[in-house]
Amino acid sequence: MTNPRPNAAAETRRPSSVRVRAVDERVVSSADLTGKTALVTGATSGLGRATATALARRGARVVLGCRDVAAAEKVATAIRAETGVASDDLVVVGPRLDLASDDSVRSFAREFTSEHPRLHLLVNNAGTNFLKRAFTKSGVGVIAQINFLGPAALTRALEAPILAAAAEGREKGGAGAGANVVHVSSVTHRYASVASVPKFLRDWDVGSYAATKLANVMFAYEIARRWGKRGVASSAVDPGAVYSSLWNNDAFFSARPMKAILSFAYAPPEDGAVAVVMASLAPFARTGAAGGGSGEKEANGDRDRDRRRNGNRNRKTDAAAHDAAADADDDDDARTRFYARGLFASSFISALAPGGSPAEDGPGVAGALARAAWSVKFGLWGAGALACSLLDYPLRRLSGGRVASATREVPSSAMSYDAAIASELWDEAGKVAGVRGG
Ligand SMILES: NC(=O)c1ccc[n+]([C@@H]2O[C@H](COP(=O)([O-])OP(=O)(O)OC[C@H]3O[C@@H](n4cnc5c(N)ncnc54)[C@H](OP(=O)(O)O)[C@@H]3O)[C@@H](O)[C@H]2O)c1
């Protein structure tokens, strides 16, 4: 199955400022969220539960946004016990949230806002895969609805408490963002394309899991573009390969031999959630400008190494120019961040990914050659990505965390910077949420 080529007229470019940066995990994990409200969707299991627990440990009031309220109550009780939070009010279950239902998303947002006038951190984590073909009342494929449209509409419907938290952060002064929105994406976004928003939402074959995870990144990009200057940070995360109930929906993955392989090779949710937690905390840990500061330091683009490479003659000028460019990046509130960890943050994964496949209806021989070249690239990269998914956690575990454990800010797929499609996704989400503009 191939997806059509992105609209040639659309702006598809990767900002030149996107470089690999290491996250200083000691600084980031010391962020204090006392007095801040965080909403984690899909917190009944897996990454959501692990993230909610980590945020409660950092002092946040954590609201669990779940469709199974009874299960969420049990999880809330367990998190309170695990973290020893002083007050029951600090880990609470929100109103029922079923991302498959527009009505549920709207009523959740209404009730949440009346209870919590400020939302400092939204973690759009809930997601699913391996669903049978089905559509919502409005004709949207359920996977596109649950993984993309529901979370995007939720974000837009929560605009008031998010922007209120951001404004409060600005009033209080200091650096960094006052609010933060995190989307849990996936490595699969690197071979997807969303060329037409109506097709993505309504054509089951186009709105695949991978496409929904690309749409998450594009929406994160749009949040940064629209709300970044107002004090809202935005990022998307590839959590790597995690052994969670996500795989239970598929007969192949839930067969006993595959379960044995996954439970050995894939990370447990607490380990897999590390990059999600880093993305959640990073804007609140920064002591420098909103875009960078102490929480992140350059990795591959390391300034000192570049200085050494520069000849003596140009050294001062080049280093100064480089520093100025890096500082300009750090000042860029509107920059989306994409975080990955371990082997998933390697340049093999980010730089060699095939991107979305060429058009099915590409012209003649040239089209056939482009498709064949894409298939070869996809096959090679896919085999490497599979190897990464089987080796990432075992390497980390066997090395006692010395190998494959760093979280990095890395470039997301080139298509994720498509401004025209991202803006359309924003509008679709606004329609569902019942809000305009933004
Ligand atoms: N596992 C991986 O290897 C992996 C890799 C990359 C990205 N991810 C992403 O990570 C996120 C979390 O997945 P996970 O691995 O932690 O899986 P998980 O344990 O199955 O958790 C998924 C969560 O989403 C919730 N959810 C599903 N449908 C929902 C709906 N209609 N409305 C509200 N909540 C809903 C589930 O709630 P219920 O308990 O009610 O079902 C559950 O709490 C997903 O977005 C997934 O795409 C996972």
TrEMBL record:
<keyword id="KW-0560">Oxidoreductase</keyword>
<dbReference type="GO" id="GO:0016491">
    <property type="term" value="F:oxidoreductase activity"/>
</dbReference>
<comment type="similarity">
    <text>Belongs to the short-chain dehydrogenases/reductases (SDR) family.</text>
</comment>
<dbReference type="Pfam" id="PF00106">
    <property type="entry name" value="adh_short"/>
</dbReference>
<feature type="region of interest" description="Disordered">
    <location>
        <begin position="288"/>
        <end position="328"/>
    </location>
</feature>
<dbReference type="InterPro" id="IPR002347">
    <property type="entry name" value="SDR_fam"/>
</dbReference>
<protein>
    <submittedName>
        <fullName>Predicted protein</fullName>
    </submittedName>
</protein>
<dbReference type="InterPro" id="IPR036291">
    <property type="entry name" value="NAD(P)-bd_dom_sf"/>
</dbReference>
<feature type="compositionally biased region" description="Basic and acidic residues">
    <location>
        <begin position="295"/>
        <end position="325"/>
    </location>
</feature>
